[in-house]
Backbone:
DNA sequence: ATGGCAAGTGAAACTTGA
């Protein structure tokens, strides 16, 4: 089973590009972030034509997440528990049915910039809530994949120019610490487990020629429960997508689980 | 050293992203 995550930076502005990638890569499951539309405006029919079941947690203008799966999605949850006042659409969870079901969580973790503001506080609070929820899911002792745009650069090796990110919310000690705390619950970073080579970037800014200069960062991650990590067979960063037509600033990352 | 792009909204210029 191949499970993808991709921050598409508006699914409707990029629909042709996104569909072309789905036709070629044909993931079994995909979590999309920053769809930037309400549920009713999500192009569900286009994905259904490609054989996908669709679950959407949308929002007008900002954020928005979706999950697509070739097999039916069960137990769909929209929104991260722990704060009923949180109106951002940043979390979707479902059990992907099949011979060996996998629970998949798609996240769009808050950016948190600029630091020293309520935005950074919101980011850290969101990470705390994710930690609490993940702890509960891990207690189920089942295959679990939490993937998405984490907006965290875990280590200096995950940035081409780490010194340029020192003042950024993505690289603050608190952000990195919260990401480590998540892993310390017993979750495995799929890329680090199977590859771990510095330079596995997943995002390049549109500005300042970041792509041609390879000024990238690794911020899109798959974290796996032990039961999922045992089945991990491959991790693939679809880097070439960044050089294509009308690209998102993030590229798809795909993992493969046995069975 | 600095800034440089893209998308949504809504119809110019602001907000957001990372």
Residues:
């Amino acid at each position: 089973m191949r499970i993808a995550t991709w921050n598409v930076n508006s699914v409707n502005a990029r629909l042709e590009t996104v569909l072309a990638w789905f036709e070629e890569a044909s993931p079994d499951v995909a979590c999309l972030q920053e769809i930037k539309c309400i549920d009713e405006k999500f192009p569900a029919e286009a994905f259904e034509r490609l054989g996908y079941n669709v679950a959407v947690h949308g929002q007008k203008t900002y954020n928005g997440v979706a999950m697509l799966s070739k097999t039916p999605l069960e137990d769909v949850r929209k929104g991260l528990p722990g704060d009923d006042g949180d109106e951002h659409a940043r979390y979707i969870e479902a059990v992907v049915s099949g011979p060996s079901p996998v629970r998949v969580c798609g996240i769009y973790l808050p950016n948190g910039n600029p630091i020293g503001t309520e935005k950074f506080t919101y980011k850290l609070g969101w990470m705390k809530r994710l930690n609490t929820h993940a702890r509960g899911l891990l207690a189920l002792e089942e295959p679990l994949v939490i993937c998405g745009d984490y907006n965290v650069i875990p280590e200096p090796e995950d940035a081409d120019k780490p010194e340029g990110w020192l003042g950024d919310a993505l690289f603050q000690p608190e952000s990195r610490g919260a990401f480590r705390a998540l892993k310390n619950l017993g979750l495995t970073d799929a890329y680090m487990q199977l590859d771990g080579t510095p330079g596995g970037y997943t995002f390049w800014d549109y500005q300042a020629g970041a792509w041609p200069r390879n000024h990238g960062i690794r911020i899109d991650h798959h974290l796996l429960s032990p039961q999922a990590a045992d089945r991990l067979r491959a991790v693939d960063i679809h880097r070439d997508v960044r050089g294509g037509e009308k690209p998102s600033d993030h590229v798809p990352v795909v993992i493969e689980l046995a069975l």
